[in-house]
DNA sequence: CCATCTCCTG
DNA sequence: CAGGAGATGG
């Protein structure tokens, strides 16, 4: 079982998801007629009158889909007001016209809510069956005792489907694409539970047809079943799940290059509406450049802009720990600038005492360079474990305060990341994207630009390809969830978080280097 | 009780 | 990005 599911998702979350599925075709109290009609819950399942909230007066949009913005937690009744506020704010943030998605969908098809739900699910079933999805589904469920993955949920959804799919081509196509993508993803992810379980029941012929990826998974599965540490299977990705869990650090390859060494993209990437503008940019491919970027972080960059920017960043930061370091950069020699930004934000430096102060103070606080480094780390790991944090920030003393600040940083990084994902997914949907495969994240895409601007503002770091893949997967997860109306569930994002947390990579050794800051 | 996480707010 | 609230899990 993944550490993540233990650490982050409660059994109640699972229950919620179950309920959503369970109630799918039951005679649930029918909320407003404009709703998609896929997921409804009773008042026990959720702690808040969803529809009342979403239709609260003053909200710029009363679309059912707007509500989902209220985020991934069940809430106490006292927080209804917050939900309303948040809905408002997010409407603004989104900057997207409040088009009722349901309406869009209904324009294409002309059926009632219930029918739609059924149609979609029924089509899923057909689709899956023709692709051998049946065996996938049947096999992996019993083995996976952790909280339900999004795949689980999807499986259950279409399981309940009936057969009446031919009359709603547009809608069906959308859902078909969704399904295709999800299946593709499931097959591609060798560490996924699906493969774990497949190994147990697939016939040799079936196994062959699945190719090397699944065989790898099978090997891993065998290992697992033979009693090797369970953690191994998810080693590369779940370490971050609980920051308390300590994981032995694997040997790092010496000939590391910053370019991601991950496998090819899971999904074909046709051009898409989210990624339009050709990028003038700056695609640094050389390892040399990477190392240079690192040196800039490590030692301060001797040439031009980066160093200065780094310095100014340190001045601007308002964090308690480094807000005391305001000095004129122009009045200081380069070395002093570097040293100060790196180590001694809270000490007025005299040239003579630099070294001494370094010894005393360098490990007591996090600097802007640490922040910059953390942001770059985010390209590899969205959920770093405390072990990884310690290894990457070994120059600071890990007090409780420092630790929680680092954790908070990553929490903030994730927040921004997911907000962007949701924003772009909704945007794509409203722009009429009907095929998940159209949702790609390339280096020239607007989404990537936004992310890169946030985590790699100086643009002096070559973002690993793997990050783009993860971003793409995240975007598609959001797209799928939203297009299926799953976002009506207050905790709908958790399912996505759970998927994404497994996609963490190892942080390159450079980040752990003793010489690194 | 503490650590961690998400969400919200400033 | 930080602080705080609330939830959750060990």
UniProtKB/TrEMBL annotation:
InterPro entries: Homeo_prospero_dom, Homeo_prospero_dom_sf, Homeodomain-like_sf, Prospero_homeodomain. The keyword Cell membrane does not apply. It comes from the Eukaryota. Its main location: nucleus. One of its GO terms (cellular component) is cytoplasm. PANTHER family: HOMEOBOX PROTEIN PROSPERO/PROX-1/CEH-26, PROSPERO HOMEOBOX PROTEIN 2. The keyword Transferase does not apply. GO terms for biological process: anatomical structure formation involved in morphogenesis; central nervous system development; embryonic morphogenesis; hepatocyte differentiation; lens fiber cell morphogenesis; lymph vessel development; pancreas development; retina morphogenesis in camera-type eye. It is found in: Nucleus. Signal peptide: none annotated. This is Prospero homeobox protein 1-like. Pfam families: HPD. Keywords: DNA-binding, Homeobox, Nucleus, Transcription, Transcription regulation. Residues 363-517 form the Prospero domain.
């Amino acid at each position: 079982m993944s550490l993540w599911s233990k650490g982050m998702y409660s059994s109640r979350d699972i229950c919620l998801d179950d309920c959503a599925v369970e109630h799918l075709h039951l005679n649930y109290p029918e909320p407003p007629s404009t709703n998609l009609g896929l997921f409804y819950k009773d008042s026990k399942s959720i702690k808040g009158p969803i529809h009342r909230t979403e239709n609260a007066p003053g909200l710029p949009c009363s679309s059912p889909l707007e509500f989902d913005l209220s985020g991934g937690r069940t809430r106490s009744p006292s927080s209804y007001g917050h939900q309303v506020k948040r809905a408002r704010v997010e409407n603004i943030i989104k900057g997207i016209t409040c088009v009722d998605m349901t309406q869009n969908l209904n324009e294409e098809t002309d059926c009632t809510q219930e029918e739609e739900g059924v149609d979609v699910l029924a089509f899923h079933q057909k689709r899956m069956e023709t692709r051998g999805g049946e065996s996938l589904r049947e096999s992996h469920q019993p083995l996976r005792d952790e909280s339900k993955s999004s795949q689980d949920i999807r499986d259950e959804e279409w399981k309940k489907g009936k057969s009446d799919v031919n009359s709603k081509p547009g809608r069906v196509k959308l859902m078909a694409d969704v399904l295709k993508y999800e299946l593709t993803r499931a097959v591609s992810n060798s560490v996924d539970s699906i493969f774990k379980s497949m190994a147990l029941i697939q016939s040799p012929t079936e196994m062959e047809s699945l190719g090397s990826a699944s065989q790898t998974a099978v090997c891993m599965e065998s290992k697992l079943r033979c009693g090797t540490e369970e953690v191994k299977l998810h080693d590369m990705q779940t370490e971050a799940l609980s920051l308390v869990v300590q994981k032995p650090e694997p040997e790092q390859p010496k000939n590391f290059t910053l370019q991601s060494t991950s496998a090819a993209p899971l999904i074909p990437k046709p051009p898409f509406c989210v990624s339009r503008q050709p990028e003038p940019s700056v695609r640094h491919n050389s390892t040399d450049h990477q190392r240079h970027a690192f040196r800039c972080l490590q030692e301060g960059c001797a040439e031009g802009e980066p160093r200065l920017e780094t310095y100014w960043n340190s001045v601007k930061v308002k964090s308690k720990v480094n807000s005391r370091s305001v000095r004129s950069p122009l009045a200081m020699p380069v070395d002093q600038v570097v040293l100060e930004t790196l180590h001694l934000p809270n000490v007025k430096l005299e040239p003579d005492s630099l070294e001494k102060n370094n010894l005393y103070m360098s490990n007591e606080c996090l600097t802007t360079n640490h922040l910059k480094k953390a942001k770059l780390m985010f390209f590899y790991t969205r959920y770093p474990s405390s072990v990884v944090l310690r290894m990457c920030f070994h120059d600071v003393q890990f007090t409780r305060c420092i630790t929680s600040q680092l954790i908070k940083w990553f929490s903030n990084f994730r927040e921004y990341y997911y907000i962007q994902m949701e924003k772009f997914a909704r945007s794509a949907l409203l722009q009429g994207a009907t095929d998940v495969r159209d949702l790609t994240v390339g280096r020239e895409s607007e989404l990537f630009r936004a992310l890169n601007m946030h985590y790699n503002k100086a643009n002096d770091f070559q973002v690993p390809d793997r990050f783009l893949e993860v971003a793409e997967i995240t975007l598609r997860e959001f797209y799928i969830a939203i297009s299926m109306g799953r976002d009506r569930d207050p905790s709908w994002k958790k399912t996505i978080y759970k998927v994404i947390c497994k996609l963490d990579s190892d942080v390159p050794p450079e980040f752990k280097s003793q010489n690194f800051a």
